[in-house]
Write a structure and sequence with these properties.
37% of the residues lie in helices and 15% in strands. It is an alpha/beta fold.
Amino acid sequence: MIRVLVAAPIHKDALKLLESSGFEVIVKEYPSNNELVKLIKGFDALIVRSKPLVTRDVIEAANKLKVIGRAGVGLDNIDLEAAKEKGIAVFNAPGAPTNSVAELAIGLMLAVLRKIAYADRNMREGKWVKKECLGQELHGKILGVIGMGRIGRAVARIAHHGFGMRIIYYDIIRCPREIEEELKAQFLDLETVLSEADVITIHVPLTPQTKHLINEERLKLMKPTAILINTSRGGVIDTNALVKALKKGWMAGAGLDVFEEEPLPSNHPLTKLDNVVLTPHIGANTIEAQERAGIEIAKKIIGFFKGK
């Protein structure tokens, strides 16, 4: 019997799908690295989300592992080189969280520009901060999209069609002409996007090439009235440089769902800033996205073992 270790919470329908296909499913949510090294022996398949880390130690300890499934988009928590060396297939569910992450990005834009979190905090303390909450509209602003893949395009569609925003973007690959025409999107270099946009939203994977893509030098290019949104990976932004930029007023604010260190420590400098909205990596954390991701990865694993 094919044995599947589910090392992160996935939708119940995905578990049922695996079981109904004749697989033995064992659930052990978020084991530590040492625990996973011990657990992985005897399993043919492993399912994770953004956690736990699937390190080389885990992969080398696996004696039967044939496939790793990531119920989500990124693969940066999996040692892909080690998996390749052992001939282990790696799958993800890239389309599942698109709508959820895109909607959160828009939500963070509104929260930062309209100072929603700041107003809420003060209201709970009995403070009426109406004057301090003078905000900005999204309507008619310039949206700079860094990474125009599935999620970047979804954000651009909401922003353009819903808020009348002008779209400029940077990516290593230019979008097809029909996408640019639909969104009236302009392809520019990274520095120009950073300097011209009123709102910058990041949607790139974390790779050696994108590590600290947004650094101090590039943050200095932003308008002092502009805001930065990150729902991709924390490591894309140099956190120390971002804190400096926010404190010195190089930019107006930021909305962050991802961080270089997760969970974010309670005493982190970002938690002390009123011009930042912070959420705990919840971009794909919706009922709909989790159902799609779980079922998509379950189907891929079933298809792998059944030769489809």
